[in-house]
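Checklist before submission:
- one chain only
- standard amino acids only
- sequence pasted in full

Submission:
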Amino acid sequence: MTRPFHLAFPVHDLAAARAFYGETLGCREGRSSDAWIDFDLYGHQIVAHLDPAAKAVAVSNAVDGHDVPVPHFGVVLTMPDWQALADRLTAAGTRFGIAPHLRFAGQPGEQATMFFYDPSGNALEFKAFADDAMIFAT
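Returned file contents:
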């Protein structure tokens, strides 16, 4: 079994982070204080740390005809979980940086992917593969 990862990242507003990660994404909240909140992101521990001056980095790299934001984080989901999240985000009116679509169609590494931003401008990518053997395809 793969062990969960831990990621700490800055947010400029804890209430907005709580609403986005807790309500929009459906992450269970763990411990918290007036300076940080733990969230369960598909079994991984992410921690939103308050930094009122937090500014998102606006860098991107071209990937399969799209400008992919760097840095970004997310989870590789099963295809049904990816579709359910895409539907949930669309229903919530989420503004996508890169809308849900199929990348590298018909090639090694074919994947469903989507990019969006949290209220502090942190970029997130969620993806899924029809065949998990393609996750590290070359």
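Reviewer check: The mean pLDDT is 94.
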